[in-house]
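Service request form, structural biology core

Requester: graduate student, group of Dr. S.
Request type: structure prediction, single chain
Budget code: on file
Notes: please return the result as structure tokens.

Sequence provided:
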Amino acid sequence: MFDVKKEVEGIVEFIRDYYEKNHLKGVVIGISGGKDSGVVAALFSKALGKENVVGVTMPCHTPDSCRDDAKLVAEKYGFELINVDLTAAFDAFKEDFSKIGSVDPANLKNSDINLKPRLRMATNYYVAAYYSALKGGTYLVAGTSNKSELFVGYFTKGGDSTYDIGVLNDFNVEEVIRIGEYLEVPEKVLYKTPNDDLSSMTDEDKLGVKYSEIAAYMNGENVEDKARERIEKLHAGAAHKFHIPVYRRCA
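Core staff response, request fulfilled:
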């Protein structure tokens, strides 16, 4: 049985211990307006105090509702929320890239989707370095991926796969929601249909499988053959994301 109180207390202790042992000060969190970043923000606010949490919204051809939902989280827990609009940077990158010659837009779809989280993670680290200097102590960048996403490789290398500390990595989507309920994350954020705000598709539509099916598979439960085959295909296809091959010299 999932003991949400025990897990929340464990996460908070984990954060505090790590920060104390490494003489750290604060955290920077990319706030998308979705449940994962909302829950992570709630946990760090509880562990470090709202004064040591900085949220960052990073719109990039995304609806205003995402930023509005991020504000709900910041207002709920009282941490600072700053906005860095990446739309112009994204457009400038694409414009400059087009100068290499004839570029078929159809071949850029995946490039465009993955450029956004990479720009966002660079922004998070930029902000973290700034606040480290401003506050006189090290600010880390928190990851927001959950276990279900990680298992099927639903993340971008060099983007949301890059962070300094992760607290949801061992919890599936339903468990993240349970934690969010316990911490009273705003319902509009917590129960929002998950989507990446990158491809105009929901997570489950893009993955071709339900998060509940991924959780069941990871727990060793029976799932329909179609879902099982899809999950296994996604997991195997993402193997390159989990381990970076490094050549070791012969002698």
